[in-house]
Structure formats: structure tokens, C-alpha cells
Amino acid sequence: MKLLIGYASTEGQSRKIARHIADKLMDQGHGIELLSLEDAEGLEPDRFDRAVLVASVHAGQYRKELSGFASDHRSWLDRHPVLFLSVSLAAAGHEAEDWRGLERIIDDFAEVTGWTPDRIEQVAGAYRPSRYDMFTRFIMRRIIASKDPGADLESDKEYTDWAALDRLIDDWMGG
Ligand SMILES: Cc1cc2nc3c(=O)[nH]c(=O)nc-3n(C[C@H](O)[C@H](O)[C@H](O)COP(=O)(O)O)c2cc1C
């Protein structure tokens, strides 16, 4: 099968997740294109049978290249199996209000682009102080200190559950 694995990432965790999926599916013999959605101009999606899109949430929204891609290729996306992975820190926790917020972000995205992904999964991302500017580090430290009191605020920390991600991909490919 030929798959497009597209990502929209700011600090690199969605890219890492996309690459992990690409490596896994390549090992299974599938044809893969791993693409930053920033570089999607001129892409001809008809070459692909399926797609995985991976995008992170920053301040309640996805990067604009994801919305641009979804709007540009809406008709292809509607006609093919697409797995949309929404990467966030809210998905690392169990707070009902945070999860409702994630649903609202998807609803807003669907309204703006006119495309509702047929399968959406929430994936826990990462805390990466090594990649934040001073202001972002200040904000993120406060968020992590309240959400994960045991975390070392000076060190990067991945919340992504790689084994669960592998199971999800196996399930989606089998379905
Ligand atoms: C400036 C900033 C804003 C963020 N806003 C949110 C948010 O609104 N909701 C959320 O759940 N996570 C938020 N996060 C956490 C990111 O979604 C998380 O760190 C993710 O792993 C980033 O993925 P990326 O490295 O692919 O960009 C934010 C992170 C940063 C640095």
C-alpha cells in the first residue's frame, strides 16, 4: 500500500511520531512518503491509498499548514482512509475539561477547513524546555508543575506512549 505520512510540528514531537509510523510501515513493506506539510505545495495525493496526518496543538490550534493542506485536499481526504493524530499535552492527562477542549479544537478545525477526519486519535506529546524561548519556558514550566508535579522542570520529557501508538497503527491498517 502507498501511504502519505504528513506532519505539522513546532518543537519536533509530531515529526518524531510521524517518522516512527513511517519507519514501522516501511518495515512492513509499504511505500511511504514522509512529508512536512509546510512542503506540500504541488503534492498529488492521488498517488496514495491512505494517509496519516500528525499535528500538534499550540495555544488551542494546529499549525496553519495543516489547515491549508486539509482545505486544499478536502475532496481526496473525504474519499480515502485518513488517520488524524492530534498531539498535545492535554492528552497526557485525564482532566475532563482538557479533553473537552481537545474536542472543541477539532470542531473548530473541521469548521474552518470543511473536512472532518474519519478517524481521530488524541496522542500525548512532550515537554521540551530545551526548545522553548524564555517566555514559553516560563509558561510551560507552570503548566507542567501543576499537571505533573513529579516532573523535573529543567529536563525534556516525553509523554507519548509508543507501544499504544504501535497498536493504534496496527488496528487502523487492519481495519
Ligand atoms: C507555546 C505552546 C503552547 C501549547 N499549547 C497547548 C495547548 O493549547 N493545549 C495542549 O494540550 N498542549 C499545548 N502545548 C503542548 C504541545 O502540544 C506539546 O508540547 C506537543 O508535544 C508539541 O508537539 P510538536 O513538538 O510537534 O510541536 C503547547 C506547547 C507550547 C510550547
Automatic annotation (TrEMBL):
InterPro entries: Flavodoxin_dom, Flavoprotein-like_sf, Protoporphyrinogen_IX_DH. SUPFAM superfamilies: Flavoproteins (SSF52218). One of its GO terms (molecular function) is menaquinone-dependent protoporphyrinogen oxidase activity. One of its GO terms (biological process) is heme biosynthetic process. Residues 4-146 form the Flavodoxin domain. It comes from the Bacteria. Pfam families: Flavodoxin_5. This is Protoporphyrinogen oxidase.
